[in-house]
Amino acid sequence: MSNSTPKTLDQDTLKHVFVHNLNRIYFGKCYLNNHLEHLKSLASFTALQQGIQEFWDDIKKQIARMEQVYKLLNEIPSDKNCNPIKSIVKDEFCLDEEQAIPVLLDMDIIMYLQLLEHINITSCHMLIMVAAQLEYTEAQQLLTECKDESIDNDELFTLITKEYIAVG
User: Fold this and answer.
1) Distances from the Cα of 83 to the Cαs of 46, 124, 143, in angstroms?
2) Which of 18, 91, 100, 142 has its CA 20 to 30 A from that of 168?
3) How far apart are CA 58 and CA 42, in angstroms?
4) CA-CA distances (angstroms) from residue 164 to 59, 74, 167?
5) All domains of the chain, ordered by start, with CATH?
């Protein structure tokens, strides 16, 4: 393996990188979308349940936006090589383990969801850069909206955490 600076990627390779990483995020979001009802049911605090619902609503919008990106590129989503994101989603930090006090499970849920949002923020940021290079202006805008929602959700879960640890 060479330590030299990588060569600039050609347009076909850039598109391949873009679609590959879009697939990872898309199928991670789809998997999460199918499992958030269970996660929401584990939360003991009403504000957390409402936050998870807001997060879930945003995931549905993000999935729809990513589907628009696929249509713009004439691509079909493929879950080949999407194991890393799905593995994180499937793991769920062992959230089905019973805890002595409900706040422990709630804080685990918050940490888990924020971790997933940080992955999404980072992935969208990279996809936005590649989209700009490929001059996929509309895809760039759609992914920026996804990223902004993820940032907002991360902040929402931080505010919910503060409700747990606020000193009277």
Assistant:
1) 32, 18, 21
2) 100
3) 20
4) 25, 46, 9
5) 11-162 (1.20.1260.10)
Q: What is the spatial distance between Cα 167 and Cα 107, in angstroms, rounded to a whole number?
A: 17
Q: Do residues 142 and 65 touch, judged by C-beta distance below 8 A?
A: yes
Answer whether 44's CB lies under 8 Å from 160's CB. no
Alpha carbon of residue 148 to chain centroid:
11
Which residue shows structure tokens 């713009």?
Answer: 72
pLDDT digits (tens, 9 = 90+) for 108-151: 899 989 999 999 999 999 999 999 999 999 999 999 999 999 99
- How many angstroms separate the CA atoms of 15 and 35, rounded? 30
Token duo for residue 97: 């383990």
